[in-house]
């Protein structure tokens, strides 16, 4: 047992301990409470590492200079905001005040964190003092060593906790986290190697983290991408700021939390890539009189108050460069909703829609809804060169074509109970998509029943389809019942029935004999 416990991953050990200490606090409140403490611990680990580097270098005289930390993307910490001060006072009745002041002090000395940290929650906590102290003690166990180098440690623990909190707070509408597996698929397909990446509803910043990971895994230079985001929930906006800042990702998330429709924080932005997971079927996103003349809807139509799906699409289209590409998720209802047919028609006629990919159900932690991955490409009318796996290749003019892919039966169930696509699954989808796009490899693309179909705008807009983007209208589905040899199958069923009847008669005879043995005739 001891050996098994030793082998448990650090992040899981800490999560298990933190979960046991939760009481008198909602899951979402506890998430911000714990993540704030983890941020403090990681900020201190990075500060200590940089402090020791300076002390062992010719820059030792500048060990107290803020600029010698910030230039290395490390937060400067005064003595009162360091973890040692928090750990030493963990059992004091004023520990909540000490932590709040530590976070305020970090914001004061690190301008990029202004209004981003969860201040003023620790002094007001309902967590019992002994559990508060135990929680600090558990987080203190996070250490850097050969097995857990700094960047790996930060990534693993932060990601693990966000993942777990997303699952645990599902019933509390904790929709702040898009599963990595889905983001991996999006980045695999749109390949954000270089330029500006934007997310208009960025949640905890997971899209940006995965974009950075994509660039790093493909031997790219992360300095070649810059990220811009917006988030309307104030607590989640702070979580995103913490998540990105502690990883060393410079991101412009606006001056504050704000609604992308009513208070756009990046009005002049033109992005190379957009990766997003907007709230599904958002109602009452504006009043009946708001945004009627908004430039984002020009040439398409005004999205209805009852559902923001197409408002998100048009907002993202307005943010793309002429060569920009977007990959985003929407509920399946957006594929054929009659209320938005005119907007959808105009998007299709303007050749904005590149591909529609239906994902498996149960990929999300907080809903079992099946969703669609949309790919919008502003440059699909042009033959041009793009980067594919770090190499330049030519893609063809795909004007008046849309690729449909159905992945509803794909993936495998994880131990947590949700569905994931394997690396092989993603590579197959990528190969299909890239062959369809490619000037050189187009001949390798084939329409495959129950999987994919390339369809022209004329077919999509005919009387029968009426501008619907529902893949099942176009992808061929095979009636597998037609493959059954009915004569052979009926013979097999009849034989099985005979065997069952024979067994039943035998059982009845044995029962009659048993009753006769005790002087009773079962037929009487």
Secondary-structure element string: HHHHHHHHHEHEHEEHEHEEEEEEEHEHH
What does the average pLDDT come to? 87
CATH class of the largest domain: Alpha Beta
What proportion of the residues form beta strands (DSSP E)? 5-15%
In the sheet with the most strands, the strands line up as 3-2-1-4-5-7-6-10-13
Please compute the radius of gyration using only Cα atoms.
Answer: 29 Å
CATH superfamily placement of the largest domain: Vaccinia Virus protein VP39
Number of separate strands: 13
Q: Can you tell me the CATH topology of the largest domain?
A: Rossmann fold
Structural class: alpha/beta
Overall geometric form: globular
Q: Based on the coordinates given, report the CATH architecture of the largest domain.
A: 3-Layer(aba) Sandwich
The share of residues in helices is 25-40%
Question: Oligomeric form of this entry?
Answer: single chain
Number of separate domains: 3
Terminal CA distance reads 65 Å
Description:
This protein has 524 residues and is of the alpha/beta class. The chain has three domains: 2-171, Ferritin (Up-down Bundle); 175-473, Rossmann fold; 486-524, no CATH class. The chain is 40% helix and 13% strand. The protein has 16 helices and 13 strands. A nine-stranded mixed β-sheet has the order 3-2-1-4-5-7-6-10-13. Strands 8-9 form a two-stranded antiparallel sheet. The chain has a two-stranded antiparallel ribbon with strand order 11-12. A hairpin with a 5-residue loop joins strand 11 (412-413) and strand 12 (419-420).
């Amino acid at each position: 047992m001891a050996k098994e416990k030793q082998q448990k991953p650090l992040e899981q050990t800490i999560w298990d301990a933190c979960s046991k200490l939760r009481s008198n606090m909602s899951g979402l409140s506890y998430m911000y409470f714990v993540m704030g403490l983890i941020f403090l611990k990681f900020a201190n680990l990075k500060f200590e590492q940089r402090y020791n580097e300076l002390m062992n270098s010719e820059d030792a005289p500048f060990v107290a200079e803020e600029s010698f930390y910030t230039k290395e993307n490390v937060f400067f910490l005064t003595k009162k905001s360091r973890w040692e001060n928090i750990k030493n006072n963990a059992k004091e009745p004023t520990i909540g005040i000490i932590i709040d002041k530590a976070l305020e002090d970090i914001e004061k000395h690190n301008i990029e964190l202004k209004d981003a940290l969860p201040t003023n929650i620790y002094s007001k906590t309902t967590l019992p003092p002994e559990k508060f102290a135990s929680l600090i003690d558990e987080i203190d166990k996070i250490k850097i060593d050969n097995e857990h180098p700094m960047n790996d440690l930060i990534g693993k623990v932060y990601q693990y906790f966000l993942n777990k909190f997303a699952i645990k707070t599902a019933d509390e509408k904790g929709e702040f986290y898009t599963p990595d597996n889905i983001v991996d698929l999006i980045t695999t397909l749109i390949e954000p190697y270089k330029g500006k990446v934007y997310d208009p509803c960025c949640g905890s910043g997971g899209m940006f983290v995965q974009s950075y990971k994509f660039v790093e895994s493909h031997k790219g230079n992360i300095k070649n991408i810059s990220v811009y985001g917006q988030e309307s929930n104030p607590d989640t906006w702070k979580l995103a700021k913490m998540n990105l800042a502690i990883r060393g990702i410079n991101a412009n998330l606006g001056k504050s939390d704000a609604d992308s429709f009513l208070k756009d924080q990046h009005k002049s932005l033109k992005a190379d890539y957009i990766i997003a997971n907007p709230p599904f079927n958002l109602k009452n996103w504006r009043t009946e009189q708001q945004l009627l003349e908004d430039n984002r809807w020009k040439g398409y139509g005004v999205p209805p108050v009852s559902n923001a799906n197409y408002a998100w699409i048009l907002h993202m289209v307005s943010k793309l460069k002429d060569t920009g590409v977007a990959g985003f998720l929407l509920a399946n209802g957006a594929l054929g909703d009659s209320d938005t047919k005119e907007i959808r028609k105009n998007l299709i006629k303007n050749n904005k829609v590149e591909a529609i990919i239906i994902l498996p159900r149960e990929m999300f932690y907080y809903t079992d809804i099946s969703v669609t991955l949309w790919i919008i490409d502003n440059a699909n009318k042009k033959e041009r060169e793009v980067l594919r796996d770090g190499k330049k290749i030519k893609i063809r003019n795909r004007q008046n074509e849309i690729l449909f892919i159905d992945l509803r039966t794909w993936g495998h169930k994880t131990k947590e109970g949700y569905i994931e696509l394997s690396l092989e699954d993603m590579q197959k989808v990528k190969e299909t998509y890239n062959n369809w796009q490619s000037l050189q490899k187009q001949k390798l693309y084939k329409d495959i029943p129950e999987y994919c179909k390339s369809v022209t705008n004329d077919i999509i807009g005919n009387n029968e389809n009426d501008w619907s983007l529902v893949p099942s209208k176009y992808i061929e589905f095979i009636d597998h019942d037609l493959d059954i040899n009915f004569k052979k199958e009926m013979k097999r069923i009849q034989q099985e029935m005979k065997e069952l009847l024979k067994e039943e008669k035998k059982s009845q005879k044995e029962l009659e004999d048993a009753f006769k043995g005790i002087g009773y005739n079962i037929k009487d």
